[in-house]
Amino acid sequence: MKVALIQQRYHGSKEATIKRTLELIQKAEDAQLVVLQELHQTEYFCQCEDTRFFDYAKEFEDDVTFWQDVSKKHDIVLVASLFEMRAPGLYHNTAVVFDRGRIAGKYRKMHIPDDPGFYEKFYFTPGDLGFEPIETSVGRLGVLVCWDQWYPEAARIMALKGAEVLIYPTAIGWFDADPEDEKQRQLDAWITIQRSHAIANGLPLLSVNRVGFEKDPTGCLDGIRFWGNSFVCGPQGEILAQADNESEQVLMYDIDTERTKAVRDIWPFLRDRRIDAYGCLLQRYCDN
Amino acid sequence: MKVALIQQRYHGSKEATIKRTLELIQKAEDAQLVVLQELHQTEYFCQCEDTRFFDYAKEFEDDVTFWQDVSKKHDIVLVASLFEMRAPGLYHNTAVVFDRGRIAGKYRKMHIPDDPGFYEKFYFTPGDLGFEPIETSVGRLGVLVCWDQWYPEAARIMALKGAEVLIYPTAIGWFDADPEDEKQRQLDAWITIQRSHAIANGLPLLSVNRVGFEKDPTGCLDGIRFWGNSFVCGPQGEILAQADNESEQVLMYDIDTERTKAVRDIWPFLRDRRIDAYGCLLQRYCDN
């Protein structure tokens, strides 16, 4: 499975950003699967709560048609990350998967964060499509989005439903004011937790993050320096390819999908799950 | 919370091994919590299937009394890992927690491995006490054992039940015949998955592994080179202390337990769990 992860900046407008994305896709010549970062068409607008950004979501249907055409033109499976208006006042952070001109399926981000600079609960209704792998011509894609990456539950369910690869379009970065050791811990944690999903489930994993500094338009916070570091890892969590923390990059890798069975056969974690004793996982907290 | 992790070898007999353990505990002078490795009294006997090893488990009650006394003498909380005979033909891999001379609780290993050289399903009935933190004078200990470490479910349930630290007595190692890159992937995966439990749950974590080479007594396999690397990590998965891969070592660290709240307040993963959508976790596989 020849994959390409497009790590890029926001270029000041939706038009300029998409133009750059298309140039980068052009570079990903023989990729079969191309993954774009979270909300790749625009700036990461969740740095503040402003109703004017809901206008972006009104273009969802047109956006879908546009990326569908791109997937057809390049004869690729394409994972796009779009802002979906489902009804006025009801919006989702939605990954749409295209398969060579066909809409293969979509995933609405299930876990929604909300912390300073990442005010996503204002914009996005938590997804209601569950954790369902999307069938494509390159395999069953376990597409999740950003904050989902902190939840082993999400990755596990995708694996139990037959996903063959885990995919995380993401927008995560540093605040410049944080000390260096805290920045390093955050980046390490972000890489580590995702590698662990690969390990626990014996699956390859693709994580695609944006780069560049984006100012907080309200001036309340300084802004976010998106830390890049998009990566591909294998079913033992081994890093196979990794981007840096500041460049636009087309990260390509040819994944050996046969390794999942080989790894799961020596590390048969799925065999020994204690489903008789996991009931507490369906509770908020087990204090009663 | 001043912790000491005792990483050691098997010294040819139960008596010699315990003697060495006591010397190492003596060195852990001002520790409040001392954690021993998996099945620390003897060799890792699961390299072959031999009924004579069930004799070890007959001494369980005496072993409990012995380590209870040790915890009293040193005025420590002590996590021991023992082979428990519950009835003839019914045995468990059991961690017993002692609190300054009192038996605080026990945990019977829930996930039981079975692969070449690690024939644990022959010896150990899967635990039936569930995932319950054990209350002690140093805090609520989320004690799990070895193979459990590959299961995010186990760590999560301990956290949801109020564990304040995750603890893994372990016996894991390399086969010398494996290539270096495979060995590195295995060690990295082992560290990574455990760090991820710390991250996902905002908890510090202690992992205690044995060292040294132990021959397979049947000669079918060469034997296992236990890889040590016992470590302490913090609630962002950051490594705080780590042993090497061949030395007996008392790894000490003073854990700041206040960091859990600080980290969980900025990374509130527990807040956003989608318990309405996790039902599949209670299934073996979601193919129906």
The shape of chain A is globular
What's the helical proportion of residues of chain A?
Answer: 25-40%
Biggest interface reads: A-B, 53 and 53 residues
CATH class of chain A: Alpha Beta
SS element count, helices of chain A: 7
- Name given to the CATH homologous superfamily of chain A: Carbon-nitrogen hydrolase
Assigned CATH architecture of chain A: 4-Layer Sandwich
First and last CA, distance of chain A: 47 Å
Strand order of the largest sheet of chain A: 5-4-3-2-1-15
Oligomeric state of the chains present here: homodimer
Which structural category fits the helices and strands of chain A? alpha/beta
Structure description:
The structure is a homodimer of 288-residue chains. Chain A is an alpha/beta fold and 288 residues long. Chain A has a single domain, classed as Carbon-nitrogen hydrolase (Nitrilase/N-carbamoyl-D-aminoacid amidohydrolase, 4-Layer Sandwich), CATH 3.60.110.10. Chain A is built from seven helices and 15 strands. The longest helix of chain A has 22 residues. The radius of gyration of chain A is 18 Å and the shape is globular. Chains A and B meet through helix 5 and helix 6 of A and helix 5 and helix 6 of B.
